[in-house]
Amino acid sequence: MEYKNLLVMVDPTKDKQISLQRAIFLARSYGAKITVLLAVYDLSYEMTSMLSQQERQSMRQVVMAQHKEWLDDIVNQYSDILIQSHVVWHNRPFQAAIDQIKAQSHDLLVKSTHNHDKLKSIIFTPTDWHLLRKSPCDVLLVKEHDWPVNGTIATAVNSVSEDSDHINLNHKVLQHAVDMAKVINANVKVINAYPGTPMNIAIEVPEFDTTGYNESVKNHHQDKTIELAQQFNLDPEQCIINEGLAEEVIPRVTKDLDAELVIIGTIGRTGLSAAFIGNTAEHIIDSINCDLLAVKPENFQCPA
Fold this sequence. Notes:
Strand content: 15-25%
Low-confidence stretches: 270-278
């Protein structure tokens, strides 16, 4: 796995463009090219009824030209990499990114991220969530955590799934982890979460052997995870199997490992199922203090 055509979304409100810095590192490692995207929009330019359509368009062009100049100043600092800058007028940054990905066949989208208000996220899905669900290519959400030499890449898998799509996605995620570990000189850890005994069974059936049941489930997940890891030349010692929900286990283990990157597969959901269920990647995005790489399945169809 090598990323060759990166799309970077920058934040004009920030002095430090950590998404671009991360993309520069990857581009140098993979020999890739970069397109830097900035979506700008100001509602006041759309609501000025006293101006003609042509005048409003001219004003938008002036604003975009100013942002393009700012963006070019940043991009021109990196003369050793092929970088293009692109400014668009769009009120939905995620859609501008998706349009660009489709038009130019980008294979990785890189964007910095920040915490989301949990209540607002249910009603107004943040840009990051839209991209995790709808981006046609893999998405790397960047935080401030460094990528040190001999650091840790944590990859989460559903090793006991019998669904062919999940099995294929597990393999793709692990292949990404192994390949990227070579690029950034990191160690790979494979995380798997397994469910505990349902409380209603323990209460309603007192004679039920909860200890034996838990041990059996744990052993099953452990065997399957090790079997999966060994297909990628990963040792059993690199597998971590913990009881609990994935969205709770992954952030906890990631923190204990001080991981620099979490790699997880994501299958996009839309509509009510997305609003109320979400994906594991979406649940953990605010709970980890490191980068998150969301890998899309081979047959992923962009809903946007």
